[in-house]
Amino acid sequence: MAEQAVAEKEEKKGRLEGPTPKLILTSSPHQLGADTIERIMWSVVLSLLPATLAGLYFFGWGALYVIVISVASTLAAEALYQKISGHGNTIKDGSAAVTGLLLALTLPPGSPWWLSVIGGFFAIIICKQLYGGLGFNPFNPALMARVFLLIAFPLQMTTWPAPRSLFSGIDAKTGATPLGDLQVARLIGKGIGKAAELNLLDAFIGNIGGSIGEISAIALLIGAAYLLYKQYITWHIPVSMIGTVMVFSGIFWVIDPGKYVNPVFHLFTGGLIIGAFFMATDMVTCPVTLKGQLLFGFGCGLITVIIRMWGGYPEGVSFAIVLMNILSPMIDRYIRPVRYGAIKNQISKVKNQNVM
Amino acid sequence: MWTIAGEGIHPSDEKGITSSLPIEGIRPPGKVVIPLSQHIGAPCEPLVKIGDMVKKYQKVGEAKGFVSAPVHSSVSGKVIAIGRFPHPSGNQSNSVVIESDGKDETIDNIKGRRDYLNSDPKELKNIILNAGIVGMGGATFPTHVKLSPPKEKKIDTVILNGAECEPYLTADDRLMAEMSREVVEGMKILMHVMGVREGHIGIEDDKPVATEAIRKAASGTNIRVVALQKKYPQGAEKQLIKSITGKEVPSGGLPMDVGIIVQNVGTAAAVYNAVHNGIPLVERIVTVTGKGVNRHGNFRVLIGTLLEHVLSECGGLAGGAGKIIFGGPMMGIAQYSLHVPVLKGTSGILVIPKGDVLLEDFRACIRCGRCVQACPIRLLPNMYSILAEVGQPKEAEKYYVLDCIECGCCTYVCPSRRPIVHHIRYIKAEMRKAKGKVA
Lengths: 356, 439
Ligand code: SF4
Ligand code: SF4
Known about the structure:
Order of helices and strands of chain B: EEEEEEEEHHEHHEHEHEHEEHEEEHHHH
Order of helices and strands of chain A: HHHHHHHHEEHHHHHHHHE
Distance between the termini of chain A: 61 Å
CATH architecture of the domain at 112-277 in chain B: 3-Layer(aba) Sandwich
Number of helices of chain B: 12
Radius of gyration of chain A: 26 Å
Distance between the termini of chain B: 52 Å
CATH topology of chain A: Ammonium transporter fold
Bound molecules: iron/sulfur cluster
Oligomer: heterodimer
């Protein structure tokens, strides 16, 4: 008898007793990827750190306060707008921080503090929130703010200190950017002028004049590699944008090297690398299909070369991307993926198999 | 691991929990609830009345119409109720409830066929129909219907689906590893029925043991074993066909339009069991897994066994169940009751504890395009999501929403946590409603 009681007790153990527990019902899938907006945005911040550090190294204090004030401004603008509109807190999604950091990296070191403040508020309030917030903005906010500042405050936006080393104060003498030199030479009819003297190794490391975060190609590429590895950006836009710039500038250089600089110069100067990897790839404002992204990158590259070679501004990356942002919805409208089975009797090469 | 973005995803698969656990039995339940609808198509007509005594393998529901499949009793005992009972699809369904007498007495005239490869294909098809066999990968399309394409469709290839790309599930993996002969013999029967010489068995390359077993069993035949790259949804019919043959099933069409028939490996084993042993489909292998249940494994479960019984046999729920899913996490269905029965198409029972259930608010689409790149059918899931949100489901037809296979890749990758598949189902339901009004 006792044995049976034990057996019964054993059987009861682990049995489900009582009513059905409250179960959660949702549509499939029940498993979701780890990448959220937060994760992607903060990863972008992380990927910009090498370039930020390079900026701090070469420009010291003149870079530090611009970065701090820019980021503080975008965060403050985001918070202020949330407060007024009564929407939830979106600061933690990281997009305002990305905007602030990107803005800072495209400003000249040692630029007046109010430039950062105006840029930060313009980016967040005008270029993002008034459109409806993240996802609805047609333009990359940081880029649009930079373009706005460039038009409204051309003097402050083109005053460049020469790179100095860490925290040694701002160099009083204003230097120039390689692209600025190039434009001057072009305008006074002197071919490529001083631009011919550019040391490409300096340009690669970042020991040249320019915006805080644009100067060091190597630092930017390290961050870009991280984003590519994480698949937060795809190669399509950067490769087609940079490729287009290289090919077009290369053609003109071959035709007349006395009048046009070589493509490597174009690659390592100005904002091409930061633009191609960190701005044109902004997911909100670029096309959603890979084919569309290739076209988008091509357009960005083409406009960049045209402005750099014949335009009224020395640098064309910002304008190019903003112009292509306008075309993004159009590209998405006409360039669509060919869906599975749309083409009758399609037989392609067998893939996804492992030969054993 | 470096992977190329696009057309499919690589979710963490958690198969290690159960992939090395051999198939086991569980104690038979005291009663079974056998729904008359366990397949795509018309529900069965009950063949029994309340109070009837039935034997194991006895047919209790007869197929009604061509696209339908009969159901059989998985125990011997007494019919105690016929009526509407909870069904894993989320509704209720007409079911036959049988109280087991514990004797497992089977019907008398069980007759198998040893010389099946010399049998008339028509007869074999009839056996398959009468055994109530349906697609056991989860789609539950009646197998005999798939084996009877219209005359003008020339079938030249049979593909067995052993990809099992759903995370967590290992039932097919274990089946192939332990019952490779049954699978391969079943495949031979299917090829014989269709009169084709070309046969492929596709297996994802994360199942070396199963692959080896099947390869061995298939050696000397003209059945080719194909190791497929691990990628979700590799086992979706259309993806599988493309991966193995390079062909794409035309939009809106069926595999037979490109001369192909696809069956699940479990279905092949059931076909063998029906033809060779004369036994209808009354049990299947179910993977029980997830942090929310105490004991994990691959269990042989009688069709009609209630979820409650299976969970009890597995040591009960652990740490407050949040979600119980029939099937895998990508396409499975969340259950509302513990009183739903295991069906012919129930490949897994996944219990997710409350703490692990993500219930976040979704946010605006940030146009990142990740869903577009993940979609294996190369659609624009972002558009469906937005159109559903703004209440314009009709517009979605222009974006070919009907081609969507509801694989869940888009929702999986969306950083805004948008319930895209849910939106798609809403759109499809609205479209059905609109059509109904017109007709
Ligand atoms: S659920 Fe539909 S739209 Fe989403 S990825 Fe799968 S097939 Fe594409
Ligand atoms: S993954 Fe989500 S956020 Fe990105 S485009 Fe698709 S729906 Fe929009």
